[in-house]
Structures are given as C-alpha cells and as structure tokens.
Design goal:
alpha/beta; Rossmann fold; 6 helices; 19% strand
Length: 164
C-alpha cells in the first residue's frame, strides 16, 4: 500500500524551506502531492499556472527529484477534499518558528473537524532554512538582493523576470 501525503501551500515562490519539507516527507511517505493553492482571496505574485511551473522546474529540473515520488497539482478546494481525491489521510505542513505554530495548530484542528480521519504531520526545515519565507524572498529580489541561499536557480530566474 502506497502512503501518500498532501503538502498544501501557496508556494509563491517555492523556497529551500519548502524543499526541505518535501525531501524529509519523501523519507516517510511513498509519494508527496505538492498541492499549490489557487484560492482567490490571496494576493499572489505569480498566478497558479506560473507557480506550478516554478515548483515543477525547482523540484524536477533543479533538484532532479523523481516524478514517481512527487506530483504537483493546483487546487481551489478544501485541503481535506484534496486528501479524499488522492486517497491520503496525511497533510504535511512545515514549521519554521514558534510564531507559525498557533496558525498551523488551528488549521490542523479545523482540518481534523472537517475529516477526523486526517492527521497533520509537522516537519521542520533544516536550521539554515528556517528563517526563509516566500515573502522575504520576494522582498529581497525586489530590492535587487542576492537570494541564491534561499531558492533554486530556476525560481530565481522566474522572480527576476517578474520584477524586470
């Protein structure tokens, strides 16, 4: 039986923190579904199609992760509905700092109320990547700073093109 985990997020853009969570998740699960949120109430830098392409380039081209082990999808439903569709009872979430915990704790509780068969598993990125956030990466690149330590080459290229 294949064990599948759903890793939902905006990935606007994907960072090494996200990638750490994916890599650690692959040690625990047979397959990770990276679910790129397309909920309309957010103000994204990249649209859903762009974010999916950026994530795919980062994961498959830059990092050479297996397409058999990682799938990238878009969704605009409840995460619990994505779990049902892909026959998963695991939601994978990353934690960077204590400040993330309260929101993530509430989110996990709500998902559990929506479907009590679903568990949320929290993974921490490596220490050097815990401070990275998509918001900071966007701000640094907008101000023409160096983001090589925060995300992949193809993601940097996409960000620079967006801000030119």
């Amino acid at each position: 039986m294949n064990k599948v985990a759903i890793y939902p997020g905006t990935f606007d853009p994907i960072t090494y923190g996200h990638i750490d969570v994916i890599k650690k998740g692959l040690k625990l699960f047979d397959k990770i579904i990276v679910a790129v949120s397309d909920v309309e109430n957010k103000n994204y830098l990249f649209n859903a199609v762009e974010r999916i392409q950026i994530v795919k380039k980062a994961i498959f081209s830059d990092l050479k992760l297996s397409k058999k082990k990682v799938t990238v999808i878009s969704f605009n439903t409840l995460t619990t509905d994505v779990c049902k569709k892909y026959k998963s009872n695991i939601i994978l979430r990353g934690l960077r700092a204590v400040s993330d915990f309260e929101y993530e704790f509430q989110l996990a509780g709500m998902n559990r109320k929506l479907n009590n068969n679903i568990e949320t598993l929290f993974l921490m990125s490596d220490v050097e990547n815990q401070i990275i956030s998509s918001r900071f990466v966007k701000e640094i690149v907008k101000l023409k700073g160096d983001i090589k330590k925060f995300t992949t080459k193809s993601t940097i290229k996409s960000l620079k093109e967006k801000y030119e």
